[in-house]
Amino acid sequence: MAKLLVINGPNLNLLGTREPQHYGRTTLAEIDARLTELAAGAGHTLENFQSNAEHGLVERIHRARDEDVAFIIINPAAFTHTSVALRDALAAVARDLEAPDLEVQLERPRDHRIAAPRTRPAVDDAVIAVLDRHGAHSGGASGLMDADCYYGRASEKPAVNYTITGGNGELDVRQPGTDNIHFGGRSQHNDWNLRFGNQLPLDLEIKMGAGTGRLQLSGLPLTHLRVEGGAGTLFVDLSGDWKQSIDGRISGGVGTVTVRLPAIVGVRVHATGGLGAVNAPGFQRDGNAYVNSAYGKSPVTLTLDIQGGIGTINLESGS
Fold first, then answer.
1. What pLDDT digit, counting tens, does each position of 70-115 carry?
2. Does residue 188 lie within any of the structural domains?
3. pLDDT for 186-244, tens place per residue?
4. Taking Cα atoms as reference points, which of 269, 276, 181 lies closest to residue 230?
């Protein structure tokens, strides 16, 4: 049995009534009660602490070292971006805990006028990980798609349209005024977290603009895949035990394209590096293609055409 400490920073005592359109209507007391229940069910004890004062938070962290606290979970709120004192307190106490600290955020900043002066969070290097969550709900698509979208300007709010033609449904999610998705920048936050259900077959087409794309597609019921990269880094995870064969096309832009491929399912990749190299450790050449050891032996085959632009193509072998 472990003792856990949950610490909440300034203004979180107003959860449920403070900007509910951003933070939800769940109160801090309700969150505390639920966390206490979950901890007890796992055989642990949990204490909740909240303060609007920086010194109060620092002093509570200090006391944890003498109270056999195994794990600190903290939402520093506004102090995330400014408090070196909290960062130093967490770093000082962490070596005496059984496990490192964990930072939680309820929401990433939406308004670029607020987010612009907030540079790298002060406490980031004193925690083991950061969990971002909009409101007090958890992910996993319950239907066709669930999504959390964070954008800096109201004009960048994603447009969502669903139509049915000839018995086929088409879900279109895009930034207004463009065919491509542009993620982030120094003066804005523009992050999309799209989660698809696994009940219906998906013919997936993604057009990236500028920014970083991380596509975790393992386990989705894909029938076809088309990805167009833009200016930035693109990572596509296709590992796992696929149940049906898939044809896909991935086009790189300016930047590195990394594709993680399954090891237990046959893979055949035609990769053209453009102005960059193709790195494919663990894969064999078969004419002008790269194949894995399961190719020709597995009843299922992933066939991909990957075209690089100005950058490198990396093929990785996953599970």
1. 888 888 888 877 788 888 888 788 665 544 445 454 544 333 333 3
2. no
3. 445 567 777 877 777 888 888 877 677 888 888 888 889 998 877 778 888 999 889 89
4. 181
State which of 132, 148, 167 marks the end of a domain. 132
The answer to whether residues 301 and 245 touch, using CB atoms and an 8 Å cutoff, is: yes
For residue 48, is pLDDT > 90?
Answer: yes
Structural domain range at position 230: 201-317
- How many structural domains comprise the chain? 2
Contact criterion met (CB below 8 Å) for 66 and 37: no
Burial class (CB in 10 A: 0-12, 13-18, 19+), 55: exposed
Do 209 and 128 have their domain in common? no
Q: Which of 293, 288, 267, 290 is closest to 280 using CA atoms?
A: 290
Cα dihedral sign, 135-80-150-142: negative
Residue from 88, 68, 63 nearest 7 by CA: 63
Nearest to 226 by CA among 242, 213, 207: 207
Verify that 117 and 37 share a domain, yes or no: yes
123 lies in some domain = yes
What whole-number distance in Å separates Cα of residue 259 and Cα of residue 270?
12
pLDDT of residue 91: 78
- Which residues, at least 6 apart from 250, have a Cβ–Cβ distance to it below 8 Å? 225, 226, 227, 229, 234, 236, 257, 259, 304, 305, 306, 307
